[in-house]
Protein backbone atom coordinates (compact mmCIF):
# COMPACT_ATOMS: atom_id res chain seq x y z
CA UNK A 1 0.00 0.00 0.00
CA UNK A 2 1.39 3.41 -0.96
CA UNK A 3 0.37 6.80 0.43
CA UNK A 4 -2.27 8.72 -1.51
CA UNK A 5 -3.10 12.42 -1.53
CA UNK A 6 -6.74 11.74 -2.34
CA UNK A 7 -8.99 8.84 -1.53
CA UNK A 8 -12.54 7.57 -1.99
CA UNK A 9 -14.37 7.81 1.32
CA UNK A 10 -17.75 6.31 2.25
CA UNK A 11 -19.49 7.74 5.31
CA UNK A 12 -22.99 7.50 6.67
CA UNK A 13 -24.05 10.97 7.75
CA UNK A 14 -27.40 11.42 9.48
CA UNK A 15 -28.54 8.11 8.05
CA UNK A 16 -27.55 8.71 4.42
CA UNK A 17 -24.53 7.08 2.79
CA UNK A 18 -22.20 9.45 0.96
CA UNK A 19 -19.27 8.43 -1.22
CA UNK A 20 -16.81 11.07 -2.33
CA UNK A 21 -13.22 11.44 -3.48
CA UNK A 22 -11.56 13.48 -0.76
CA UNK A 23 -8.15 15.06 -0.51
CA UNK A 24 -6.17 13.68 2.43
CA UNK A 25 -5.59 17.20 3.74
CA UNK A 26 -9.32 17.97 4.01
CA UNK A 27 -10.63 18.44 7.56
CA UNK A 28 -13.87 16.65 8.41
CA UNK A 29 -15.60 19.94 9.22
CA UNK A 30 -14.93 21.28 5.71
CA UNK A 31 -16.02 17.99 4.17
CA UNK A 32 -19.34 18.26 6.03
CA UNK A 33 -19.86 21.94 5.29
CA UNK A 34 -18.49 22.33 1.78
CA UNK A 35 -19.03 18.92 0.18
CA UNK A 36 -22.19 17.74 1.92
CA UNK A 37 -23.61 21.24 2.43
CA UNK A 38 -24.24 20.52 6.12
CA UNK A 39 -23.42 24.03 7.29
CA UNK A 40 -24.95 23.66 10.75
CA UNK A 41 -21.57 22.48 12.04
CA UNK A 42 -19.62 25.65 12.74
CA UNK A 43 -15.95 26.54 12.71
CA UNK A 44 -14.99 28.71 15.66
CA UNK A 45 -11.34 28.44 16.58
CA UNK A 46 -10.02 25.78 14.17
CA UNK A 47 -7.64 24.66 16.94
CA UNK A 48 -9.66 22.13 18.94
CA UNK A 49 -10.44 24.56 21.73
CA UNK A 50 -13.98 25.90 21.23
CA UNK A 51 -16.12 22.86 20.36
CA UNK A 52 -18.33 24.72 17.84
CA UNK A 53 -17.49 21.99 15.31
CA UNK A 54 -18.53 19.07 17.56
CA UNK A 55 -20.17 16.13 15.79
CA UNK A 56 -20.71 12.52 16.85
CA UNK A 57 -18.59 9.91 15.05
CA UNK A 58 -19.36 6.25 15.81
CA UNK A 59 -21.18 7.28 19.00
CA UNK A 60 -18.33 9.50 20.23
CA UNK A 61 -18.35 13.30 20.38
CA UNK A 62 -15.35 14.72 18.53
CA UNK A 63 -14.21 18.08 17.23
CA UNK A 64 -14.54 17.87 13.47
CA UNK A 65 -11.78 20.47 12.90
CA UNK A 66 -9.38 18.01 14.54
CA UNK A 67 -9.98 15.08 12.18
CA UNK A 68 -9.24 14.47 8.53
CA UNK A 69 -12.18 13.33 6.43
CA UNK A 70 -10.12 10.32 5.28
CA UNK A 71 -9.85 9.19 8.91
CA UNK A 72 -13.61 8.65 9.15
CA UNK A 73 -13.92 6.39 6.11
CA UNK A 74 -16.59 3.81 6.98
CA UNK A 75 -17.85 5.73 10.00
CA UNK A 76 -21.35 6.71 11.05
CA UNK A 77 -21.66 10.44 11.75
CA UNK A 78 -24.36 12.52 13.39
CA UNK A 79 -24.44 16.27 12.89
CA UNK A 80 -26.75 18.96 14.24
CA UNK A 81 -28.97 18.50 11.16
CA UNK A 82 -30.01 15.08 12.51
CA UNK A 83 -31.73 16.47 15.61
CA UNK A 84 -34.91 18.10 14.34
CA UNK A 85 -37.35 15.86 12.53
CA UNK A 86 -40.61 16.39 10.68
CA UNK A 87 -42.28 16.11 14.06
CA UNK A 88 -40.46 19.25 15.24
CA UNK A 89 -37.54 20.09 17.44
CA UNK A 90 -35.49 17.52 19.32
CA UNK A 91 -36.20 17.69 23.09
CA UNK A 92 -32.74 19.19 23.62
CA UNK A 93 -33.45 21.90 21.06
CA UNK A 94 -36.83 22.62 22.64
CA UNK A 95 -35.22 22.77 26.08
CA UNK A 96 -32.58 25.24 24.78
CA UNK A 97 -35.43 27.39 23.46
CA UNK A 98 -37.45 27.08 26.69
CA UNK A 99 -34.47 28.06 28.87
CA UNK A 100 -32.96 30.82 26.69
CA UNK A 101 -29.85 28.69 26.39
CA UNK A 102 -28.65 30.52 23.28
CA UNK A 103 -28.08 34.10 22.28
CA UNK A 104 -26.01 34.50 19.12
CA UNK A 105 -26.30 30.76 18.49
CA UNK A 106 -22.80 30.27 17.17
CA UNK A 107 -21.82 27.69 19.78
CA UNK A 108 -25.25 26.05 19.82
CA UNK A 109 -24.83 23.24 17.26
CA UNK A 110 -21.67 22.01 18.98
CA UNK A 111 -23.21 22.49 22.41
CA UNK A 112 -26.25 20.44 21.39
CA UNK A 113 -24.13 17.62 19.96
CA UNK A 114 -22.07 17.45 23.18
CA UNK A 115 -25.33 17.42 25.16
CA UNK A 116 -26.74 14.68 22.93
CA UNK A 117 -23.55 12.63 23.38
CA UNK A 118 -23.93 13.01 27.15
CA UNK A 119 -27.59 11.92 27.23
CA UNK A 120 -26.89 9.04 24.82
CA UNK A 121 -24.45 7.63 27.39
CA UNK A 122 -25.94 8.90 30.65
CA UNK A 123 -29.70 9.38 30.84
CA UNK A 124 -29.69 10.95 34.32
CA UNK A 125 -26.65 13.22 34.55
CA UNK A 126 -25.89 15.27 37.64
CA UNK A 127 -25.27 19.00 37.27
CA UNK A 128 -21.55 18.34 37.61
CA UNK A 129 -21.67 15.69 34.89
CA UNK A 130 -23.49 18.14 32.60
CA UNK A 131 -20.86 20.81 33.24
CA UNK A 132 -18.03 18.38 32.55
CA UNK A 133 -19.72 17.16 29.38
CA UNK A 134 -19.75 20.67 27.88
CA UNK A 135 -16.29 21.59 29.14
CA UNK A 136 -14.96 21.46 25.58
CA UNK A 137 -17.62 23.85 24.29
CA UNK A 138 -17.08 27.55 24.72
CA UNK A 139 -20.03 29.94 24.78
CA UNK A 140 -19.22 33.65 24.78
CA UNK A 141 -22.81 34.80 25.32
CA UNK A 142 -24.86 32.89 27.84
CA UNK A 143 -22.66 32.28 30.87
CA UNK A 144 -23.59 28.58 30.64
CA UNK A 145 -26.18 28.58 33.46
CA UNK A 146 -29.17 28.39 31.11
CA UNK A 147 -27.42 25.78 28.97
CA UNK A 148 -26.89 23.55 32.00
CA UNK A 149 -30.54 24.05 33.02
CA UNK A 150 -31.73 23.23 29.52
CA UNK A 151 -29.75 19.99 29.36
CA UNK A 152 -31.01 18.99 32.82
CA UNK A 153 -34.60 19.70 31.73
CA UNK A 154 -34.19 17.68 28.52
CA UNK A 155 -32.78 14.77 30.53
CA UNK A 156 -35.86 14.82 32.77
CA UNK A 157 -38.21 15.18 29.79
CA UNK A 158 -39.38 18.54 31.10
CA UNK A 159 -39.77 20.38 27.78
CA UNK A 160 -42.69 22.36 26.43
CA UNK A 161 -44.76 20.75 23.70
CA UNK B 1 -7.95 25.77 7.58
CA UNK B 2 -6.67 24.22 4.40
CA UNK B 3 -3.66 22.10 5.20
CA UNK B 4 -0.68 21.72 2.91
CA UNK B 5 -0.98 18.76 0.60
CA UNK B 6 -0.11 15.54 2.40
CA UNK B 7 -0.01 11.83 1.62
CA UNK B 8 -2.07 9.40 3.66
CA UNK B 9 -1.69 5.71 4.32
CA UNK B 10 -3.57 3.45 6.68
CA UNK B 11 -1.58 0.25 7.12
CA UNK B 12 -3.11 -2.84 8.71
CA UNK B 13 0.07 -4.18 10.33
CA UNK B 14 2.90 -2.73 12.42
CA UNK B 15 5.57 -3.97 9.97
CA UNK B 16 3.79 -2.16 7.15
CA UNK B 17 3.57 1.03 9.22
CA UNK B 18 7.28 0.85 10.03
CA UNK B 19 8.10 0.27 6.36
CA UNK B 20 6.05 3.32 5.31
CA UNK B 21 7.69 5.47 7.99
CA UNK B 22 11.16 4.35 6.94
CA UNK B 23 10.58 4.69 3.18
CA UNK B 24 9.22 8.22 3.13
CA UNK B 25 11.31 11.10 4.40
CA UNK B 26 9.01 13.33 6.36
CA UNK B 27 6.50 10.59 7.14
CA UNK B 28 4.90 10.89 10.59
CA UNK B 29 2.57 8.62 12.53
CA UNK B 30 -1.00 9.90 12.90
CA UNK B 31 -2.68 8.79 16.12
CA UNK B 32 -5.61 10.82 17.45
CA UNK B 33 -4.52 13.89 15.49
CA UNK B 34 -5.24 16.22 18.43
CA UNK B 35 -1.74 17.71 18.29
CA UNK B 36 -0.32 16.95 14.87
CA UNK B 37 -3.22 18.52 12.96
CA UNK B 38 -2.78 21.77 14.89
CA UNK B 39 0.95 21.63 14.20
CA UNK B 40 0.16 21.25 10.49
CA UNK B 41 -2.43 24.05 10.56
CA UNK B 42 0.14 26.36 12.16
CA UNK B 43 2.64 25.30 9.46
CA UNK B 44 5.03 24.50 12.33
CA UNK B 45 5.75 21.21 10.58
CA UNK B 46 4.74 19.83 7.21
CA UNK B 47 4.83 16.03 7.12
CA UNK B 48 4.88 14.61 3.58
CA UNK B 49 2.99 11.51 4.61
CA UNK B 50 0.70 10.70 7.54
CA UNK B 51 0.76 7.05 8.52
CA UNK B 52 -2.59 6.54 10.25
CA UNK B 53 -2.24 3.98 13.06
CA UNK B 54 -6.02 3.56 13.43
CA UNK B 55 -6.18 0.04 11.96
CA UNK B 56 -3.32 -1.42 14.03
CA UNK B 57 -5.51 -3.56 16.28
CA UNK B 58 -2.64 -4.65 18.55
CA UNK B 59 -2.05 -0.98 19.44
CA UNK B 60 -5.65 -0.63 20.65
CA UNK B 61 -5.64 -3.21 23.46
CA UNK B 62 -5.38 -2.87 27.22
CA UNK B 63 -4.33 -6.09 28.95
CA UNK B 64 -3.37 -6.97 32.49
CA UNK B 65 -0.20 -9.02 32.93
CA UNK B 66 0.09 -12.17 35.05
CA UNK B 67 1.97 -10.30 37.77
CA UNK B 68 -0.76 -7.65 38.06
CA UNK B 69 0.77 -5.02 35.79
CA UNK B 70 -0.69 -3.49 32.64
CA UNK B 71 0.14 -3.43 28.95
CA UNK B 72 -1.44 -0.50 27.13
CA UNK B 73 -1.38 -0.15 23.37
CA UNK B 74 -0.19 3.20 22.04
CA UNK B 75 -3.56 3.86 20.32
CA UNK B 76 -5.63 3.51 23.49
CA UNK B 77 -7.50 6.80 23.94
CA UNK B 78 -7.67 8.87 27.11
CA UNK B 79 -11.40 8.09 27.26
CA UNK B 80 -10.62 4.37 27.19
CA UNK B 81 -8.09 4.78 30.02
CA UNK B 82 -10.81 6.48 32.09
CA UNK B 83 -13.33 3.64 31.71
CA UNK B 84 -10.98 0.62 31.66
CA UNK B 85 -11.60 -1.80 34.54
CA UNK B 86 -8.09 -3.25 34.03
CA UNK B 87 -6.58 0.21 34.57
CA UNK B 88 -8.80 0.77 37.60
CA UNK B 89 -7.69 -2.53 39.13
CA UNK B 90 -3.97 -2.31 38.39
CA UNK B 91 -2.89 1.36 38.39
CA UNK B 92 -5.97 3.55 38.97
CA UNK B 93 -3.94 6.77 38.87
CA UNK B 94 -3.71 6.47 35.09
CA UNK B 95 -7.48 6.61 34.61
CA UNK B 96 -7.89 9.33 37.24
CA UNK B 97 -5.32 11.52 35.48
CA UNK B 98 -6.61 10.77 31.97
CA UNK B 99 -10.02 12.03 33.14
CA UNK B 100 -8.44 15.45 33.77
CA UNK B 101 -7.15 15.87 30.21
CA UNK B 102 -8.91 18.66 28.32
CA UNK B 103 -12.50 17.66 27.54
CA UNK B 104 -14.69 14.79 26.35
CA UNK B 105 -14.01 15.37 22.66
CA UNK B 106 -10.22 15.53 23.03
CA UNK B 107 -10.24 12.47 25.31
CA UNK B 108 -12.32 10.55 22.75
CA UNK B 109 -9.59 11.04 20.12
CA UNK B 110 -6.28 11.71 21.87
CA UNK B 111 -4.19 8.61 22.58
CA UNK B 112 -1.68 7.67 25.25
CA UNK B 113 0.93 7.14 22.52
CA UNK B 114 0.33 10.58 21.03
CA UNK B 115 0.36 12.16 24.48
CA UNK B 116 3.83 10.84 25.27
CA UNK B 117 5.27 11.08 21.74
CA UNK B 118 4.31 14.74 21.47
CA UNK B 119 5.92 15.27 24.93
CA UNK B 120 4.42 18.69 25.31
CA UNK B 121 5.95 19.61 28.69
CA UNK B 122 2.47 20.49 30.01
CA UNK B 123 0.96 17.09 29.16
CA UNK B 124 -0.50 15.02 31.96
CA UNK B 125 0.71 11.51 31.19
CA UNK B 126 4.54 11.75 30.86
CA UNK B 127 5.14 12.44 34.60
CA UNK B 128 2.76 9.62 35.59
CA UNK B 129 4.52 7.08 33.38
CA UNK B 130 7.95 8.08 34.70
CA UNK B 131 6.74 7.90 38.31
CA UNK B 132 5.28 4.40 37.96
CA UNK B 133 8.42 3.20 36.18
CA UNK B 134 6.75 2.30 32.87
CA UNK B 135 8.56 0.68 29.94
CA UNK B 136 8.04 1.96 26.42
CA UNK B 137 8.24 -0.50 23.54
CA UNK B 138 9.38 0.93 20.22
CA UNK B 139 9.13 -0.91 16.89
CA UNK B 140 11.52 -0.23 14.03
CA UNK B 141 12.94 -1.93 10.96
CA UNK B 142 15.13 -4.12 13.18
CA UNK B 143 12.31 -5.23 15.47
CA UNK B 144 11.39 -4.03 18.93
CA UNK B 145 13.33 -2.40 21.73
CA UNK B 146 12.35 -1.39 25.26
CA UNK B 147 13.14 2.01 26.75
CA UNK B 148 12.46 2.92 30.41
CA UNK B 149 10.07 5.89 30.66
CA UNK B 150 12.70 7.93 32.49
CA UNK B 151 14.99 7.71 29.42
CA UNK B 152 12.19 8.12 26.86
CA UNK B 153 11.65 11.89 27.03
CA UNK B 154 14.51 13.80 25.39
CA UNK B 155 13.16 17.30 24.82
CA UNK B 156 10.09 19.29 23.87
CA UNK B 157 8.36 17.17 21.20
CA UNK B 158 11.39 14.87 21.20
CA UNK B 159 11.48 11.31 22.48
CA UNK B 160 13.45 8.10 22.06
CA UNK B 161 11.19 7.22 19.11
CA UNK B 162 13.40 7.87 16.08
CA UNK B 163 12.51 8.46 12.46
CA UNK B 164 11.07 5.32 10.94
CA UNK B 165 10.00 4.06 14.35
CA UNK B 166 6.75 3.63 16.21
CA UNK B 167 5.79 3.43 19.87
CA UNK B 168 3.68 0.29 20.07
CA UNK B 169 2.90 -0.24 23.75
CA UNK B 170 3.56 0.88 27.30
CA UNK B 171 4.03 -1.61 30.13
CA UNK B 172 3.27 -0.59 33.71
CA UNK B 173 4.66 -2.71 36.53
CA UNK B 174 2.25 -3.96 39.22
CA UNK B 175 1.68 -1.72 42.22
CA UNK B 176 3.11 -4.42 44.50
CA UNK B 177 2.24 -2.51 47.66
CA UNK B 178 3.18 0.90 46.26
CA UNK B 179 0.66 3.74 45.87
CA UNK B 180 0.37 6.43 43.22
CA UNK B 181 -0.70 10.04 43.45
CA UNK B 182 -1.04 13.05 41.16
CA UNK B 183 -1.58 16.76 41.73
CA UNK B 184 -1.63 19.77 39.45
CA UNK B 185 -2.49 23.43 39.24
CA UNK B 186 -4.27 24.08 35.97
CA UNK B 187 -5.62 26.92 33.86
CA UNK B 188 -9.30 26.48 34.72
CA UNK B 189 -10.82 23.18 35.81
CA UNK B 190 -9.14 20.31 33.95
CA UNK B 191 -7.25 22.80 31.81
CA UNK B 192 -3.63 22.88 30.71
CA UNK B 193 -1.23 22.27 33.60
CA UNK B 194 0.82 25.15 35.00
CA UNK B 195 2.76 22.66 37.10
CA UNK B 196 1.96 19.00 37.77
CA UNK B 197 3.48 16.21 39.80
CA UNK B 198 3.08 12.45 39.91
CA UNK B 199 4.31 10.38 42.82
CA UNK B 200 4.75 6.70 43.55
CA UNK B 201 5.37 5.83 47.19
CA UNK B 202 6.87 2.45 48.10
CA UNK B 203 7.53 1.97 51.77
CA UNK B 204 9.16 5.17 53.05
CA UNK B 205 10.44 6.27 49.70
CA UNK B 206 8.74 8.54 47.15
CA UNK B 207 9.48 8.81 43.45
CA UNK B 208 8.28 12.27 42.51
CA UNK B 209 8.09 13.45 38.91
CA UNK B 210 7.44 17.09 38.05
CA UNK B 211 5.94 18.29 34.78
CA UNK B 212 5.87 21.78 33.16
CA UNK B 213 9.11 22.87 34.89
CA UNK B 214 11.59 21.70 32.23
CA UNK B 215 11.62 20.31 28.69
CA UNK B 216 11.26 16.79 30.07
CA UNK B 217 9.74 15.37 33.27
CA UNK B 218 12.02 15.87 36.29
CA UNK B 219 12.48 12.76 38.49
CA UNK B 220 13.40 13.12 42.17
CA UNK B 221 13.45 10.63 44.99
CA UNK B 222 12.90 11.60 48.62
CA UNK B 223 11.68 10.17 51.89
CA UNK B 224 7.87 10.12 51.66
CA UNK B 225 7.31 13.00 54.07
CA UNK B 226 5.99 16.48 53.38
CA UNK B 227 9.09 18.39 54.52
CA UNK B 228 11.54 16.03 52.87
CA UNK B 229 9.68 16.19 49.54
CA UNK B 230 9.53 20.00 49.61
CA UNK B 231 13.21 20.12 50.44
CA UNK B 232 14.10 17.78 47.58
CA UNK B 233 12.14 19.93 45.11
CA UNK B 234 13.67 23.08 46.58
CA UNK B 235 17.15 21.64 46.21
CA UNK B 236 16.63 20.48 42.63
CA UNK B 237 17.62 23.86 41.18
CA UNK B 238 14.59 23.99 38.87
CA UNK B 239 14.67 26.60 36.09
CA UNK B 240 11.02 26.54 34.97
CA UNK B 241 9.76 28.78 32.16
CA UNK B 242 8.00 32.10 32.79
CA UNK B 243 4.90 32.86 30.80
CA UNK B 244 1.55 34.60 31.02
CA UNK B 245 0.21 31.85 33.31
CA UNK B 246 2.99 31.98 35.89
CA UNK B 247 6.48 33.33 36.54
CA UNK B 248 9.41 31.00 37.06
CA UNK B 249 9.34 31.82 40.78
CA UNK B 250 5.65 30.97 41.01
CA UNK B 251 6.22 27.66 39.20
CA UNK B 252 9.11 26.85 41.57
CA UNK B 253 6.77 27.47 44.48
CA UNK B 254 3.97 25.41 42.91
CA UNK B 255 6.40 22.56 42.22
CA UNK B 256 6.93 22.12 45.97
CA UNK B 257 3.21 22.34 46.66
CA UNK B 258 2.03 19.85 44.03
CA UNK B 259 4.91 17.45 44.77
CA UNK B 260 3.92 17.34 48.46
CA UNK B 261 0.23 16.93 47.53
CA UNK B 262 0.97 14.10 45.08
CA UNK B 263 3.00 12.28 47.75
CA UNK B 264 0.23 12.81 50.31
CA UNK B 265 -2.31 11.43 47.84
CA UNK B 266 -0.07 8.39 47.43
CA UNK B 267 -0.26 7.89 51.19
CA UNK B 268 3.08 9.48 52.09
CA UNK B 269 3.14 10.94 55.61
CA UNK B 270 2.88 14.66 56.34
C1 LIG C 1 -7.73 21.65 23.00
C2 LIG C 1 -6.76 20.63 23.48
C3 LIG C 1 -6.41 20.61 24.81
C4 LIG C 1 -5.50 19.66 25.30
N1 LIG C 1 -5.19 19.67 26.62
C5 LIG C 1 -4.36 18.72 27.12
C6 LIG C 1 -4.04 18.66 28.51
O1 LIG C 1 -4.47 19.48 29.32
N2 LIG C 1 -3.21 17.66 28.95
C7 LIG C 1 -2.70 16.73 28.10
O2 LIG C 1 -1.97 15.85 28.56
N3 LIG C 1 -2.97 16.76 26.79
C8 LIG C 1 -3.77 17.73 26.28
N4 LIG C 1 -4.05 17.75 24.93
C9 LIG C 1 -3.34 16.78 24.07
C10 LIG C 1 -4.17 15.51 23.84
O3 LIG C 1 -4.57 14.96 25.06
C11 LIG C 1 -3.37 14.40 23.11
O4 LIG C 1 -2.60 13.66 24.01
C12 LIG C 1 -2.39 14.90 22.13
O5 LIG C 1 -3.07 15.72 21.25
C13 LIG C 1 -1.64 13.82 21.35
O6 LIG C 1 -2.35 12.64 21.14
P1 LIG C 1 -2.89 12.25 19.72
O7 LIG C 1 -3.28 10.82 19.83
O8 LIG C 1 -3.92 13.18 19.28
O9 LIG C 1 -1.57 12.34 18.83
P2 LIG C 1 -1.30 12.97 17.38
O10 LIG C 1 -1.65 14.38 17.34
O11 LIG C 1 -1.88 12.07 16.36
O12 LIG C 1 0.29 12.79 17.38
C14 LIG C 1 1.14 13.63 18.17
C15 LIG C 1 2.61 13.37 17.79
O13 LIG C 1 3.02 12.09 18.23
C16 LIG C 1 3.40 11.26 17.16
N5 LIG C 1 2.86 9.93 17.46
C17 LIG C 1 1.58 9.64 17.82
N6 LIG C 1 1.46 8.32 18.10
C18 LIG C 1 2.68 7.77 17.93
C19 LIG C 1 3.20 6.45 18.07
N7 LIG C 1 2.42 5.43 18.47
N8 LIG C 1 4.52 6.25 17.81
C20 LIG C 1 5.32 7.28 17.42
N9 LIG C 1 4.88 8.55 17.27
C21 LIG C 1 3.58 8.79 17.51
C22 LIG C 1 2.82 11.89 15.91
O14 LIG C 1 3.60 11.62 14.79
C23 LIG C 1 2.84 13.36 16.29
O15 LIG C 1 4.11 13.90 16.03
C24 LIG C 1 -4.93 18.70 24.41
C25 LIG C 1 -5.29 18.71 23.06
C26 LIG C 1 -6.19 19.68 22.58
C27 LIG C 1 -6.55 19.69 21.14
S1 LIG D 1 -13.61 24.96 15.50
FE1 LIG D 1 -13.16 22.95 16.13
S2 LIG D 1 -12.85 23.18 18.24
FE2 LIG D 1 -13.11 25.24 17.61
S1 LIG E 1 -24.82 31.68 22.27
FE1 LIG E 1 -23.30 32.98 21.49
S2 LIG E 1 -21.50 31.80 21.78
FE2 LIG E 1 -22.97 30.64 22.80
Task: Sum this structure up briefly.
In chain A, 30% of the residues lie in helices and 17% in strands. With 161 residues, chain A is an alpha+beta fold. The model of chain B has no long low-confidence stretch (mean pLDDT 96).
Q: Please, could you describe this protein's structure?
A:
In chain A, 30% of the residues lie in helices and 17% in strands. With 161 residues, chain A is α+β, with helices and mostly antiparallel strands. Chain A folds into two domains: 6-82, Ubiquitin-like (UB roll), CATH 3.10.20; 91-156, DNA polymerase, domain 1. In chain A, strands 2-1-5-3-4 form a five-stranded mixed sheet, covered by helices on one side. In chain A, helix 2 crosses helix 5. Chain B is α+β, with helices and mostly antiparallel strands. Chain B folds into three domains: 7-52, 2-Layer Sandwich (Uridine Diphospho-n-acetylenolpyruvylglucosamine Reductase, domain 2), CATH 3.30.43; 57-172, Uridine Diphospho-n-acetylenolpyruvylglucosamine Reductase, domain 3, CATH 3.30.465.10; 179-265, CO dehydrogenase flavoprotein, C-terminal domain (Enolase-like, domain 1, 2-Layer Sandwich), CATH 3.30.390.50. Helix content of chain B is 32%, strand content 27%. Chain B has a five-stranded antiparallel sheet with strand order 4-5-10-6-7. In chain B, strand 13 and strand 14 (218-223) form a beta hairpin. In chain B, helix 10 runs antiparallel to helix 11. The longest helix of chain B has 18 residues, at 248-265. Bound molecules: flavin-adenine dinucleotide and FE2/S2 (inorganic) cluster (2 copies). Residues 43-46, 48-53, 63, 65 of chain A line the site of one FE2/S2 (inorganic) cluster. One FE2/S2 (inorganic) cluster binds next to loops of chain A.
